[in-house]
C-alpha cells in the first residue's frame, strides 16, 4: 500500500489531507509530520479513532502493526511532497508560480482576484508557501479548478528549486529580489541565487517567464531569456505608472507604448511599492486571457488583510498603515519612502526590529534609522534590542512593544499618519488598540 500510486488512489477517495489532529475531519488522510517540538506519529492512533481514512507514519511502532490503515513510509515529509507532485502530473491546468523577497502574498492575492473574474482559480491560502505548505496547497487543487497560483517562499538556497520540482509551474515571476532572510541565504548574492532558482526551472522547461523590469536584480536573473516584461520601462510589454491619492494607490497601465489606451485601477492598497504587485497581476492575467475590465474589477475589489499594507482609519482620527506581518531592510525602506511621499501634517513611525539578517543586522538597522531621521514632520519610535544597538537619541527607543504601549497610553497619538512596521515577532499590531 505504501507506493505513491497506491497512496494516491487512497487520496482520491479521501476527503483531503491533514497534518493536525486538532482540525481533523472524517475521511481525511493524516500525515504524521515531525517538527522540532512535536511528532505526528504520537497521534496516529488518535487520528484513526477520530475517523480519518488512513494515517501515513514513518516510525515502525508496535501499536501500528495491527492497524491496516496505518501506512508506514521512510519519510512522511518526502511522501507528502511526492504525493503532491504525483497529483500535479494529473492536473491538466496551468499553474503560476511566484516568489520574491517582498510582496509575495499581496501579489498572489491580487493575481487571484484578477484571474477569479474569468476562471475558477485556486491560490495558496495564507502563507502556506514552504516545503510543507506548497505540497498541501497543490493537493487542495481539484478537478473543478481551471487555473492555480502557488506562492513559494524560501530562507535558504535550493528551497525554491525543491518547491518548483513539486508544483512544476507553467509560468511564473519573482516580485523582487531584496534583502530578506540574509542569514539563511548567506548574504545578498545568496538571496539572488535562491530566488533565481524559479527562473532557472522555468527556463529549463520552456515555460513562460514574467519579469519585473523595474528591479535590476530580477532583470539580471533573466539575461538572454525570452520574457514578458512589466514595469515603467519603455521596453516593457506591460507599462504603467501610479499616483497616491486619498483612496490609496491608483495604477495606470497600457501595452507596448500605446498610451492612447490607458487603463486605470484604483486599489485599496497603500504604498508605491505595491505598483509592481498590481502590474504583475495585470501582465499575468492578460497573458491568460482575462479582459482589462475584469482585471480592473477584481483588483479594485481586493481589500488587504492580515497586517499587510492595511490602511485603517481609527476613532482617534489616525490613519494607520499596518504593515507588520514581516519586515526586512528592503521592505522597511519601501515603507519609509511611502510615508515620505505622503502629505499628512503629522507623521509617526513605529518601527520594530528586523530579524534573520545575521551579521548585517547592525548596519541595516542603522541605515533604516538614518532614513527615518530624514523624513520631515515625523516622530519615530523604535522597538527591540536590534534598534537599541543603533539608537542615536533622535528617536525614542523601547526594548519591548509592551513598554511602548505604556508610553502611548500616557501620551496618545491623534489626527496623525502612523506606520506600524516590523518583524512579526515584535507584535506591533498590539499597538492598534491605542491608536
Low-pLDDT stretches: none
* Structural classification: alpha/beta
What is the name of the CATH architecture of the largest domain? Answer: 3-Layer(aba) Sandwich
How many separate helices? 15
State the fourth-level CATH superfamily of the largest domain: Mur-like, catalytic domain
Oligomer: single chain
Average pLDDT score? 90
Q: Note the main sheet.
A: 9 strands, mixed
Q: What integer value in Å does the Rg equal?
A: 23 Å
Question: Which fold name corresponds to the CATH topology of the largest domain?
Answer: UDP-N-acetylmuramoyl-L-alanine:D-glutamate ligase
Widest sheet, order of strands: 6-7-5-8-9-10-11-12-13
Helix content bin = 25-40%
Tertiary shape: globular
Q: What's the total number of strands?
A: 19
Number of separate domains? 3
CATH class of the largest domain: Alpha Beta
Amino acid at each position: 500500500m505504501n507506493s505513491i500510486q497506491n497512496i494516491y488512489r487512497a487520496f482520491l477517495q479521501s476527503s483531503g489531507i491533514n497534518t493536525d489532529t486538532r482540525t481533523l475531519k472524517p475521511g481525511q488522510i493524516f500525515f504524521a509530520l515531525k517538527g522540532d517540538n512535536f511528532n505526528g506519529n504520537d497521534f496516529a492512533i488518535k487520528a484513526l479513532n477520530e475517523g480519518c481514512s488512513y494515517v501515513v507514519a514513518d516510525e515502525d511502532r508496535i501499536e501500528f502493526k495491527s492497524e491496516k490503515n496505518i501506512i508506514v513510509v521512510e519519510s512522511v515529509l518526502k511522501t507528502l511532497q511526492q504525493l503532491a507532485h504525483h497529483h500535479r502530473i494529473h492536473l491538466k491546468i496551468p499553474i503560476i508560480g511566484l516568489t520574491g523577497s517582498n510582496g509575495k502574498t499581496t501579489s498572489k492575492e491580487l493575481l487571484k482576484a484578477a484571474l477569479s473574474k474569468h476562471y475558477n482559480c485556486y491560490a495558496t491560502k495564507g502563507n502556506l508557501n514552504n516545503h510543507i505548505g506548497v505540497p498541501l496547497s497543490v493537493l487542495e487543487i481539484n478537478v473543478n479548478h481551471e487555473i492555480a497560483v502557488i506562492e513559494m517562499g524560501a530562507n535558504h538556497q535550493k528551497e525554491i528549486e525543491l518547491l518548483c520540482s513539486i508544483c512544476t509551474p507553467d509560468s511564473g515571476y519573482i516580485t523582487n529580489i531584496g534583502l530578506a532572510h540574509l542569514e539563511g541565504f548567506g548574504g545578498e548574492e545568496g538571496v539572488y541565487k535562491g530566488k533565481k532558482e524559479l527562473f532557472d526551472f522555468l527556463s529549463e522547461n520552456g515555460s513562460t517567464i514574467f519579469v519585473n523590469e523595474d528591479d535590476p536584480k530580477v532583470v539580471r536573473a533573466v539575461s538572454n531569456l525570452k520574457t514578458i516584461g512589466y514595469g515603467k520601462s519603455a521596453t516593457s510589454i506591460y507599462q504603467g505608472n501610479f499616483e497616491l491619492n486619498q483612496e490609496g494607490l491608483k495604477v495606470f497601465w497600457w501595452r507596448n507604448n500605446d498610451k492612447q489606451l490607458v487603463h486605470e485601477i484604483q486599489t485599496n492598497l497603500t504604498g508605491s511599492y505595491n505598483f509592481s504587485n498590481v502590474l504583475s497581476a495585470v501582465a499575468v492575467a492578460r497573458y491568460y486571457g482575462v479582459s482589462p475590465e475584469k482585471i480592473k474589477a477584481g483588483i479594485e475589489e481586493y481589500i488587504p488583510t492580515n497586517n499587510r499594507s492595511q490602511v485603517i482609519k481609527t476613532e482617534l482620527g489616525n490613519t494607520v498603515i499596518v504593515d507588520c506581518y514581516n519586515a526586512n531592510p528592503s521592505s522597511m525602506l519601501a515603507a519609509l519612502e511611502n510615508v515620505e511621499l505622503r502629505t499628512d501634517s503629522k507623521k509617526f513611525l513605529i518601527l520594530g526590529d528586523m530579524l534573520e539578517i545575521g551579521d548585517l543586522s547592525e548596519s541595516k538597522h542603522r541605515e533604516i534609522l538614518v532614513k527615518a531621521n530624514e523624513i520631515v514632520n515625523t516622530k519615530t519610535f523604535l522597538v527591540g534590542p536590534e534598534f537599541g544597538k543603533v539608537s542615536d537619541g533622535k528617536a525614542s527607543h523601547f526594548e519591548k512593544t509592551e513598554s511602548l504601549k505604556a508610553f502611548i497610553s500616557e501620551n496618545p497619538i491623534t489626527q496623525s499618519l502612523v506606520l506600524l512596521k516590523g518583524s512579526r515577532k515584535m507584535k506591533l499590531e498590539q499597538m492598534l488598540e491605542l491608536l
